[in-house]
C-alpha cells in the first residue's frame, strides 16, 4: 500500500481544524491552551496540511483540544482508507424526526427530501462518502462522528458501490458556492 503523504497531511490538518472549530475556538484560543509556544501561522500551516507536525507537537495539539491523539489518527485513517462500499443507508423519516440539536441541518434536508420523494419509493436513501463529509461540515462535526450518529437512523453501511442503492439511487449534496 502506498501512502500519499501530502494528502494524509491535508486530511490530518483538516481534522485538527474541524475539531478546533467545533469547539468554537480561534487559533489564538487553541494556541493559549498549548504547553509550548508556536506562532499562529505555524498552527495554520498544520491545519492546512502544508507543514509536517512532529509527533510530540501533534499530541500536544490533540490534548489541548481534549482529544486523544490515537483517536484523531483513527478518524484520519477511516477518512483516507474508505471506499465506495462505505456508503451508508439511512431513513429520512427518522432523521427528520430527530431531536438531536447537532443534526438540525440534516433534519431540514431530510424533510425537504421527503416532500420531493414519491410516497411509494420509501424513505430510505444511500449517502455517499462525499455527501456525509459535506453534511458533517454543515453540522459542525467530523464525517466519522456523523457516520457514527447516522447508524442510529438506518441500516449499517452498504456494499452497493459508487452507483448508489439497489435501485441506482445515490444521494450527493450540492457544494456551496
CATH topology of the largest domain: 434 Repressor (Amino-terminal Domain)
The profile of the biggest β sheet is:
3 strands, antiparallel
Strand content: 5-15%
Question: What is the level 1 CATH name of the largest domain?
Answer: Mainly Alpha
Spatial arrangement of strands, main beta sheet? 2-1-3
End-to-end distance: 35 Å
Report mean pLDDT, rounded to a whole number. 82
Chain-wise SSE layout:
Layout lengths: L4 H18 L4 H7 L6 H8 L7 H10 L4 H12 L7 E4 H5 L7 H13 L7 E4 L1 H11 L3 H8 L3 E4 L20
Antiparallel strand pairs: 1-2, 1-3
What is the compact description of this entry?
The protein has 177 residues and is mainly alpha-helical.
Overview of the molecule:
The structure is a single chain. With 177 residues, this protein is mainly alpha-helical. Helices cover 52% and strands 7% of the residues. It folds into two domains: 5-80, 434 Repressor (Amino-terminal Domain) (Orthogonal Bundle); 84-157, Arc Repressor Mutant, subunit A, CATH 1.10.10. It has helices at residues 5-22, 27-33, 40-47, 55-64, 69-80, 92-96, 104-116, 129-139, 143-150; strands at residues 88-91, 124-127, 154-157. A three-stranded antiparallel beta sheet has the order 2-1-3. Mean pLDDT is 82; it is low at 156-177.
